[in-house]
Amino acid sequence: MPTKEFKFERSSGVLLHPTCLPGADGIGDLGQGAFRFVDWLNQHGQSLWQVLPLGPTSFGDSPYQTLSAFAGNPLLISLEKLVDDGWLSVDFLADRPDFDDDRVEFGPVIEWKFAALKKAWLVFQETAAASDRARLEDYRQQNSEWLEDFALFMALKNDFDGKPWNQWDSSLVIRESLALDEARLRLSNPIASFVFVQWLFHEQWQQLRSYAAAKAVRLVGDLPIFVAYDSSDVWANPQYFQLADDGRPTHVAGVPPDYFSKTGQLWGNPLYDWSALEQDSYRWWIARLRGCLEQCDVVRIDHFRGFAGYWEIPADEKTAVNGVWKQGPGASFFEALQEAFGKNLPVIAEDLGVITSDVVKLRDQFNLPGMKVLQFAFSGPENVFLPHEYQPNCVVYSGTHDNDPTMGWWNHLTDATCRDLVARYNGHPVEEPNWTLLRMGMLSCAHTFIATMQDVLGLGREARMNLPGEGKGNWNWRMPADAFIHPAGERLAQLTWLARRKPDQKLSAPSEPEFTLTTPKETS
Prior knowledge:
Strand order of the largest sheet: 9-6-3-2-1-12-11-10
Shape: globular
Number of helices: 19
Radius of gyration: 24 Å
Structural class: alpha/beta
């Protein structure tokens, strides 16, 4: 939890999930590539690094459908740092597979990483000093509120060949005390191994966070409003969710039919029992946000509108058509957060999509910055995403993880009116669409501007992170290693200097301007 209340300042940064970083083990991690990226941000005037959710992923590899809202993703653990710590040998890493540098191949990566973590656990058990064991035990005690349930959940999930928890023995589904005690005793070593892996993640992440703080880089986290059904959160806290006696959801989340989909979107996440959460003073939610703020300095909460009102769909429906709007927790929820974290909440409200007046009222009541996405701005001259419509208290993005990179978006536009409006709005033909949007966002009045790394590098559709509704082929883009020496970094730094988004930035004006100003001739 922050030691003082958070304050948004005029600043800028980059959105890049750690899995996208370059590295030798098939996926970006918390090792050398992450520290080098912090250096790159600092050297180029950026003071924010935004990531996607950091939890352990499951089927589909989506960071928005995790096995726990509290745990860290084991795939992000740096194996090279485990060598430094003595839990793996150099010889072990010499046998690593030949991974693709451009894409994450999740199957082979999971097999390799989990084998390495299993080996590290064996080495720790055999060789760890008393001080290391004490540090691990201290971590376990300090995080027992969520960690014990998560470790037991994972051990049981493995014991049942990966089946979702509602397909386990009925005594475990309904969490009978005797069945849980027997499982804890029988699976004590696997449980301890999952605790060990979470400790490794925690240690490495905190080292990275401390390094970022020393370089004046603040971390922006991401917290989905809903959690996955097959998660330790729902299994261990059924009283907070809309579940039947057998543990199955009675209602699930989604959004209603709209311009983009005649049947809406059926997400399938279990819905909260907000009355039960309120009766418990939102204790679980406060613990969840506190856990995220122990990792990051500020948190983007996805699907903010769900706190004002949410679309409730019967669990047996095949589409989202037959849902109904239900009132969310509203102001009482955020008052509880203020009581826990202070008046100035370190929260960014993801308020995209069809937003009604009650959502705007709730956001503004608690002075939360909303989001503006520049790719959404050019449907007409009165679009609320155009920079002249902004208020300072907002966060502007060139695009998000769900968008095409700007070059892909531009090259696949079918509406010439949109391209024409971009040109007319900026007063000149558009030759570099990505830099056109980056400049607009950077020079806007918004206190925060975030560029995707793909847009900084000028990449196209091949670098897209996620295509909503597509169940495979997502989340696997990786940044090329030579991005750290790409000339776009210096160009970003100069634009940041021009926009005064880092007042202490040690840069002078560009030695070679991007264009030459001409002075009109005087008339006699």
